[in-house]
Each structure stands twice: as C-alpha cells, then as structure tokens.
Description:
CATH topology of the largest domain: Diaminopimelate Epimerase, Chain A, domain 1
Number of strands: 18
Shape: globular
Strand content: 35-45%
Order of helices and strands: HEEHEEEHEEEEHEEHHEEEHEEEE
Structural class: alpha+beta
CATH superfamily of the largest domain: Diaminopimelate Epimerase, Chain A, domain 1
Number of helices: 7
Largest sheet: 18 strands, mixed
Radius of gyration: 22 Å
Amino acid sequence: MKEAHIPKAETFPTEVDKLNRLPVMTLDIFQVDAFTSKLFGGNPAAVVPLNAWLPDTLMQQLAMENNLSETVFFVPAAGAANHDYDIRWFTPGVEVNLCGHATLASAFILFNKLGFAKEKLRFNSKSGILTISRFEDKFKMDFPSWKPTIQAEVPSSLIKGLNITGYKGLYQYRDLVVELEDEDAVRFCDPDFNLLKQLGEKVIITAAGKSCDFVSRFFAASIGINEDPVTGSAHSQLVPFWSEKLDKKSLHAKQLSLRGGELWCEDLGDRVTIAGSCVFYMNGQFEIDY
C-alpha cells in the first residue's frame, strides 16, 4: 500500500509567522446599473468606497478582476476642501480622466446606501469638480462641455474599422466623433474591433434619433472595451455638438448598445448636465492582503 505524503512540520506556518502576517483588509463593493430604470439595462459599474487611496497598481488590478467597463473609487475630501470626495475611475486596462456612468453610480450609492445627506454632492476629479444632485427620480451631473471640432483628415483605418461606406462628418475633442446618416446606420454598425484597437482612438458614432434627439454608440477597443453600454463622458462632447446642430438646449439621448441606455441632457455653454436613473444590483465585500 502506497504511503500517504505528510508535509514536514516546518512547512506549516508558525505562531510567529501568523503574528508577522499583514492584516487582511476588507472593503465593500457595490454594483449598480446606470442610465437605466430596469435591471440588466444601462451600464454596470463597480463602486468601491475607500477611507484612503490604495496603491494605483492595486486599484488597477481590482478593476481588471471586476472586468466591468469601469470600477470607481472615492475617498472623503481632506480638511476644508470645497468638495465632498475625490474620485477616480479605472477600466480593466487603464485609468481614465472622466467617466459618467460610474459617477452616476457613485452618487446613487452615496445618497441611497451610505447616508449622504447634503442637497448636492461634489466630487473632485482629473476633469475638475463634478456636482451631482437629485433630479425628480434621477440624478443630474454637472460635467465639462467638450465641443468637438471638425477634422479634415480621415484615417482610412477608421472607415475600415467601423465597416462603413459613408459618413456625414468627422469631429474630435477627446474622442473621434463620427456622424452617420441616420439612426439605423448607428444601430446596425458592425465594427472590426481589431482594426479599431490598432487605430488607438476611442470612437463615438452618432446620428439624429427617431424617438429622441440623438443616438450614439461608443467603441473603446484601444483601452480594452470593445463597446461601452452607456457612456456619460461621451455626452460631454455630444451635447454641445447636437445642441448647436439642432438649435436646442435640452436634449433627450439614447445609446444603442445591446443593454441600451437613456440620458436627459442640457447645454449650459461651458458646462453640460447629464441626468439618468440607476438600479441597484448587489453589494458584497472583498479581502486583500498587500
């Protein structure tokens, strides 16, 4: 009969080892569907409240582990700051300078789960101060206005990557904004994500809507997200673009991803407001030892 293998005694942790081991940190995590009024719609975001910043590499690893388009972290503002929290957003691959749906999800959690009692919530971010307030049954975010300008040179890889034969115009501020002929051209666009990844740009396609003012889709293969379900930050560019084009300040928008999303926007000149609903999905805890 084969003798069972028994580990040597010295392979087991000693009491000294146990005392010297760093304590495990337990953190809360919430998941919220943003820019939707129904579960499994909109854009899911992981929300992680912190008392102090974790190392950047660890936050990036957590975002990769969550494998959602965004994981958002926020910490209480220090001292007599003119804001309530500092906020940062991570995709599975990189940190980004602005994210709408995860900001909306953070406001939802702070107001509804963590007892935030002020009338307005102010986040400090890499894109400046972002103010969020309740708006009927929604949350309204005050964001920067990033009006895109027309681009004369059109990369051939963009047209190939989007797999389209024509377009009405190409613009850019942070992201490439491609105006297509109509809503159906946006809805049925079938991109080659490998080509879009090689392009190295995030791409918005947009057109006038049938049942709303304008529609869009957002592709970010260059940062590890083929298609983002609903993209608040894209509307920092789309709102001033469509406000001028349609000659109206208040705009109703839809993002035509598989999950779909709905946004109510307003052009304020140097700022835009973007409002939407959220649906709570789950909360839990994770443990890290670093």
